[in-house]
Amino acid sequence: MLAVKGLSRAFGGVQAVDQVDFELKRNQVLGVIGPNGSGKTTLVNLITGFVRPDKGKVIFKGKNITKKPPYKVAQMGLARSFQMAKPFYQLEAYKNLNVALYSPRVKGLLGGKFGDRDAVAKDLLEEVGFERDSQVITQTASSLPHGYLKRLELAKCLALRPDLIVLDELFSGLSLAEVASMVPVIEKLVAQGKTLIMVEHRLRELFRIADQVLVLNFGRKIAQGNPTEVMDMPEVKSAYLGA
Ligand code: ADP
């Protein structure tokens, strides 16, 4: 599904991402962890075309997407969410899915047979935890609580019918109860065979979901493996605990 090779990017004197390599197979979930400032969001931005690499390659479904702009990457089926939700604040929650639902990708996939997009949007919002027929679905995004904005971010990704979804700290800013209700939503996507990359600080929840975990520190990949083996690695403990 995805191959990242020697990906590097500096900002001024800071090497934000440094020679990162990894591969991700279809139906797998890769967790990306690391201390603050270790390059996680920059890695997401490099993969999805929001930041250009100084060096390295991103291969998605066998195609080189390294220099493609974000909208082209999305149209190819690589969706991402933002740590800071970026909705259209004046639009109702479900109308926020229209950019994806009216995109050439979705039109192409459905061959013109789409039906009622509003109904599809509402179904998608229900899938990510909006209560059916409730006010939150028709509320403007500006008045949605933070937890729902994060759900909306996920629904926007799903609306694109993506092959790969990159979630940048989906759980950040959520209460424990909100995290607990979001986990089954993700688990359902995993059960459906979706391929995911999750940048996450909530390790306990991430380790339940992820097949593989990649650990960044100062922009470098310092470890990769299944959750149990990664947390036992001394270099990971010292990056986290400073020991
Ligand atoms: P993380 O997501 O792991 O917290 P980031 O990818 O946001 O880390 O940042 C990695 C490093 O790159 C940090 O030192 C950060 O300050 C720097 N950085 C990220 N984006 C920019 C930018 N647009 N301009 C300058 N420095 C940046």
From TrEMBL:
Keyword Transport present in the record's keywords: the answer is yes
- Where does the record locate the signal sequence feature? none
SMART domains for the chain: AAA (SM00382)
Pfam families, per this entry?
ABC_tran, BCA_ABC_TP_C
Cellular component per GO? plasma membrane
Where does the record place the ABC transporter domain? 2-243
PROSITE patterns found in the cross-reference section: ABC_TRANSPORTER_2 (PS50893)
Judging by the UniProt lineage, the source's domain of life is Bacteria
What are the GO MF terms of this UniProt record?
ATP binding; ATP hydrolysis activity
Q: Which UniProt keywords apply?
A: ATP-binding, Nucleotide-binding, Transport
Write down what this protein is called.
ABC transporter
Native organism is Dethiosulfatarculus sandiegensis
Traced from the root, the source organism's taxonomic lineage reads:
Bacteria, Pseudomonadati, Thermodesulfobacteriota, Desulfarculia, Desulfarculales
